[in-house]
Amino acid sequence: MHLTGGSESRAFALIYDRHSSAAYSLAYRILGSRGAAEDAVQEAFLTIWRSRERYMPERGSVRTWTLAIVHRRSIDVLRRNVVHLRRQQAASENEDRHLEGDRTELEVVRREEAREVRAALDELPGPQRKVLELAYFGGFTHREIAGMLEEPMGTVKGRMRLGLQKLRLQLAGDAA
Amino acid sequence: MARDHERYAEDVAPYVLGALDPLEAEALEKHMRACADCSRELVELRSGAEMLSRSVEQIEPPASLRASVLAEVETEGGATETPSSASHPPATAPASGSERRGALSRLGTRLRQGGARAGGTLRPRPALVLATGMVALVAGVTGWALAGGGATDDRTVAASVDRERLPEASARMTIPAEGEDTVLRLAGLRDLGPERTYEIWVQREGKLAPGPLFHPTANGSAVTGIPGDSEDIEAVFVTRERAGGALAPTETPVVSVPLSS
Predict the structure, then answer these.
(1) What gap in Å lies between CA B112 and CA B249, rounded to an integer?
(2) What is the mean pLDDT of residues A16-37?
């Protein structure tokens, strides 16, 4: 199959349709603001479009690639806004979430999947889960986390590695 | 050199989590371009990080965001970025500047090539089979059985199921007289787990385009709409792909629905 000419933008639209919910959900989780999440997702998808020639499947699925870019953009935004607005805005915007209404089968599956992954995350030892959440969702560097937890940086990095490995293996085991 | 490697290796996890300072990240990316061990570790830990992204509560973006992104894409046309921004870092072999093949065409090609990577085993290149149309498809696959059938105003079309890979599956497609979406209904499907998904492929004018992704319910059934005008659909296929889907099929279809003679 060759996607050329106008097919490129149509294929990109398909990528957007498939992954924008996950992307937006992740950005919102990190930034805690709908407006900031929209900006981050827009920037991320335009980055994907502009750098599409460099997609390398051996480094992960389109979804992994997309979410990695969205995560990076969101963390960039978070760090630019030193004040973590999300903590103040989250409460007021929770009501604004589009959780009701028609749900496609895919959305239902993703919500179920999210519950399963959260359960897997809960299985991790507390110190490992904490460094993962502080880094991935909180946007803190390993240095900042080590300072907050009063732990050596090597310990923090080690917990990050172990936590990611366990999460991957745990979910791979469930899939087998 | 070994000490350098150890120093960098412990940075891969914080890198995947976005927890390195920019200079540290840049140094690690440079190291990983030449270090197979760290590159392998990157791929493994990234799948762990992807699980984190999947754990968040799912909310829908506003429709205006889609319109805005796609309008920008239409405006930019075929523009691509030079390999300096860190969208898929680090590339072991940066893309050649002379390559000006279109966008997702290349991406689709790479996905097809990626069919050989899982577990180091070679898989068939069904995209080639599919591209030649239904005759080659049917001739190239053994063990297919007819399931479903019938024809009314809302046409219900026979589906072929690969009995070797989906021994208990059945499928039928309903094409409405007008207005509604074409719908593919399946039963007896196997659960593929979180790492894999079923993917629809729609053939029009001899060309395949990827369609919706879907997972069966707990009882193995699934109902999915086929996007676009039903009149010009020549065939619909289903394959099993990695989570997130592919832009070109990586296996011979497990279900096919030929519509054109």
Answers:
(1) 7
(2) 90
